[in-house]
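In this section we walk through a basic example: taking a raw amino acid sequence and producing a predicted 3D structure, encoded as discrete structure tokens. The instruction is simple. Fold the sequence below.
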Amino acid sequence: MFRTGMTCLLIAVAIPWIVTSQTGCAQGADGAEKTADQIAVDYLEAIGGLEAHLKHTTRRTEGMFTFVAANLPPWKMAFTQKAPNLSHTRIDIPGHGAFIEVCDGTVVWRNEPGKPTQQLQGWELKQKLRDAHFHGYVDLKSDYASMTYGGQEEIEGKVHDLLNCTFEDGDRETLYLDATTHLLARIKRPGPKITVEFADYMEVDGTPVASTVTVLHQAKTVVKLKIETVTHGVEVDDALFARPERGVRGAAGGGGRGRGGGRRFSEGGTALHVQPLVHTLDTDGSVMIDEKELEAGFLKMLDQHGENHVRLLKLFDGDGDGALGKKEAQAAREFLFGLSGVLLYDANQDWQVDDEEADKAWDQWGEGFERYNDGVLKRFDRNKDGELNAEETKAGREQLKRRR
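The resulting token sequence is shown next.
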């Protein structure tokens, strides 16, 4: 088992949290009372022993990253590490570019498509640096300042031993280890009702690696990683861990969606996206959004997404299987697209387009398509006769195909 810095990428929300330890004692197969130290020893043996891990100093992990909560398709992911604490994460987002995060051991940078490089600060920096530790989650006794046994808990028919762990700086997390295999099954870190689960272990160079990593919020899946390959001993240039350039755009000259040929606006774009949320997030009236306000707002957003998903299922889950199939999802998209059209013309905001609003909408449509037709003629009416002949029409169609 190895510490995956992607765990921190998945758990981006952290607030002060007090671990609720489970009381009582459990006994091992020999009848002896279990202790935190003994559980750590059993875990280290289960993952192949310390030497099996220390012999590796570089690693590349590849797989797929799925943002389940947003119902998005999987994205290709690559995670490169070098001992003692260098890491490079890349997630390719089709049509937009690449999300890149780099740790050089002391500084962590993040790039999102089309945005300036961001240097992480505060609690997020601290967590990223901790997760970049190449040999983390191996010798638990050296990872934490203290560990206490939290009793046992049964999850989906399996008994787990709980370790309540405290870092030197006072941060805490709880590890759930399978009482039979002694492998890590779950981590609870600072953050309300956030859980990271590890499953489907595969053997890599004599050590077990979880091939499925799932993040849940309030028992609802938010993100899932599917690890496909793990390669040790790869050649890694230290330049990979240097400060990255401006966010990588999509292929073919900028790619990405949006107006202006994929152009992104820094201050203006941020204002358009963030400004409407400020009045909701700024609970203390300071006009600034601090970490706690951001965290609270983000968690509320996840809750709303979950509630909206339930509503969509009630409307479009025709077969009652608890998920939207291809046709059901298409029906939901068409419905939402139709609602967005209503918002464009519903001046009195009563969620319907009355006769007066329809007249105005018709005028807007007419003006808009007049401008469109004028533009087409200017571009393709080569003989300037005010019409498109067969050859000019063909050229126009070819141009439209390339734009789709």
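Looking at the output, two observations stand out. The first strand starts at residue 58 and ends at 66. Residues 2-25, 248-273 have pLDDT under 50 and may be disordered. In the next section we compare this with other chains.
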